[in-house]
Model the fold of this input.
Amino acid sequence: MASMSEQPPHTPAEEPAWKRRAVERSTQAAKRRAEERGERFLDAARAVVTEKGTTDFTVQEVVDRSRQSLRSFYQHFDGKHELLLALFEDAMATTAGRLRAAAARESGPLERLRCVVRELFESGRPGAVGARRPLFADFAPALLVSRPREMAVAVAPVVAVVAELTAELERTGALGGSIDALRAARLTVRTVLFAARPESADEGEPLTADEVWDFCAHGLLRG
Done:
C-alpha cells in the first residue's frame, strides 16, 4: 500500500469556462464604455476648439459640453495637455489616411511624394475662408519644440506614409545623400509641419506649398 508521501499531489479543479467568459465579457464591456466616454470628451473638445478658433479653453468647458463629470474626465486624461495630445494624435491618424489616398492617385514615386508634402503643408494652413486650425497653428509647433518625444509618437502615422514613399525613391536611386528613408521621412515631416505654422508679421509673404516642396526636394533628391 502506498504511503501518504507517495500519493499524487492534490490538483485544484480548473476554473469553469463560464467564469472566464463572464470575466472577458465584463472586461470588454468596461473597455467599450471607457472608449465611448473618452470619445465624447474628444468630440466636445473638438467642438470647443472649432467654435473658439483657439486651444485656449478650460477643462471645465469640455466637461460641460460633453455632459459628463469632471471626475470621469480625470479618469481618462491627466489634464488639458493630454487631451490636446489625444486630439492631435487623432488628427494625425486621419491626415495619414488622407495622404495615403491622395498619393494613390499619382502615377510615380516622385509625384506621390510631392503630392504628400503639399497636402501635409496645406493641412496645417488656415482654411479656405481663413479659419484657423489651432491644433496645427498653436499646439503642433509648441509640441515640436518642447516635447519632441510626444511629437514623434503623434506624427508616426504620417511619417510611415512619407517613409514608404522615400523608400520607393531610394529603390529607384533618386534619393540623394547618405540618410536612410525613415530618417529622411522624419526630417521631412518635421520641416513641413513647422513651415505650415502661421507667419509672424516680420516674415513677409506666407510660404506656399510649391516653395515647401522645392525646399524638401533639394534635400531629398539626388542631383
About this structure: Residues 17-52 form the longest helix (36 residues). DSSP finds ten helices and no strands in the chain. The chain has a mean pLDDT of 85. Residues 76 and 82 are 9 Å apart (CA to CA).
